[in-house]
Amino acid sequence: MIKKAILPVAGLGTRFLPASKSIPKEMVTVVDRPAIEYVVKEAVEAGIEQIILVTHSSKASIENYFDRNFELETTLEQKKKFDLLKEITEILPSHVSVVSVRQPQPLGLGHAVLCAKDIVGDEAFAVLLPDVLVKSQSTENDLANMIAQYQQSQAAQIMVEAVPDQLVDQYGIVDVAEVPTQGQSQVMQGIVEKPAIGEAPSNLSVIGRYVLPAKIMQLLEKTPRGAGNEIQLTDAIAMLQETETVEAYRMLGQTFDCGSKLGYLKAVLHYGIAHPKLGTQFAELIQELKI
Ligand code: G1P
User: Fold this and answer.
1) I need a surface site. Which of 32, 96, 164, 252 has the fewest CB within 10 A?
2) What residue ranges do the domains of the chain occupy?
3) Is 133 close to ligand 1, i.e. is its CB under 6 Å away?
């Protein structure tokens, strides 16, 4: 079973300045909780039991968020604010742990994943990029589907969705003989990081959810710097695919790129409307705007 997930959170979030100047971009609030909580919950719902944060010295508030806060808990208890107490102590179920490791230098996503090598050991694991929120469209969790497919085929799973042709240069793009239907996987023939428009093998973009075998760590160790002069996870996956079957999983859910300001605003709207307590009033508020 796949129980470990790596969340690379060391990036400085320059796309989200000035908000990210003194708080991690992952801690920016989407409705009433930090963006990172949605990603961690997505992983937990898919059966993950250990969250591995690959982090940076400026990002301690992420670790603090998932830790207990004795002072706050005592105060809430004394004030008999039991609903809030429950909420802050039940952010994660008790069987889930959060550990962290530092990425000492910003050498790219592939390097960030490699920083968790010793924690992962010889187990297959998931990677979730926290900039992207994945909202389920149904009861199905896409990451859970990928894990089930990995269990069955033993092939690495790369989550993809179609993007407009003019945006292919912003993503990893996969090459498949047959385009998978949503919720299904197909064997991948290639993967390339941020191809030039007009040179992409398809419009199926890598959205930042992966299920990978432990072997990828050895490949990352010998991955040379690629696009942007960084060690790219995409390049190590391309190497893996030379010797093993790798599959592209086409997602069912909807993505929100919270690393970009407009994507973030879109996420706030969608998650706000879906919020169990605030949703109805928030929807009314939007209607009042009449834009
Ligand atoms: C990373 C990956 C890329 C992927 C993207 C998804 O790029 O390298 O393959 O498509 O995340 O958000 P980044 O956005 O970090 O440049």
Assistant:
1) 164
2) 4-289
3) no
